[in-house]
Amino acid sequence: MGIPTLHAKILFYSKTLGVSFDQTLTLGRQNLYVSKKEVRRYLRRFTNDDFIAENEFIYDAYSEPLFKNLGANLIDSMDNSTYEGATAVHDLNQPITENMKNQYTAIVDGGTCEHVFNFPAAVKNCMQMLRVGGHFISFTAADNMCGHGFYQFSPELFFRIFSYDNGFDIKLMAMHAGDGSKDSTNVYTVKDPDDVKTRVEFESKKGLCLIVVAEKIKDTELFLNHPQQSDYSRVWSDKDTETTTSSADNVSAIRALYKRKIPLRIRNIIYGIYHRIRYRKTDYRGFAKVHKKFVDKLDF
Question: What radius of gyration, in Å, describes the C-alpha atoms of the chain?
Fold first, then answer.
């Protein structure tokens, strides 16, 4: 786990979204893969300051100097053991204790939650440890990282978790390709599938990283209703039951007729054309195949 150059840039950018790092918790003690020179550049760009608050910038050492320059007065780290010197030892598979709740203005997951088997418990712990007005920031595996951890995640999951009903508001949902070692790597904001009324899907030959910045806007009981994928929720909606049922019957009849009348070879050609249209590339070279209306390039 560590913070490469691009993710450091995003952390500084997140200050413009209202993130306070005053009381920071990192999940795992994060290694630092960014230079003092780069930090000074981000300070100038995003805070109009170039004063380095901490000079101990050692490549592949730990990230406390970075967070001091982000404005942290307290920097805790949580892990399941003390082998990397974490200040708080806790297994994120298990619920946190009452005295750990509402403690932090920022919780940064630089690649931990995908390694925790009980992910719902882990993310709930993070939500509870934040103060109202605090932010959860995550850099996590999205695609083509099979075997890296237990899980790879989609934007849809985090849109449904960090919802208003659960007391949160998404400030940034974005993705990039590669390991984040270059701050010139393109980052693309991702639209909510519930807003665009369809699945937002990506195809890439490179590893994709998902970026989440979510603000806690109120204290509330979490997950009174389990998150559901938005397209299924629309189908299951009570007010649409009658329409959905008749529509489903019509669609099934059309599909049956289509398969009966159109030869498989022709159907494959039609599907290939549909696939190219749905996942057509625009200027996302080196990123992923994705419909252009679902993403926007982040200029920051």
Answer: 22
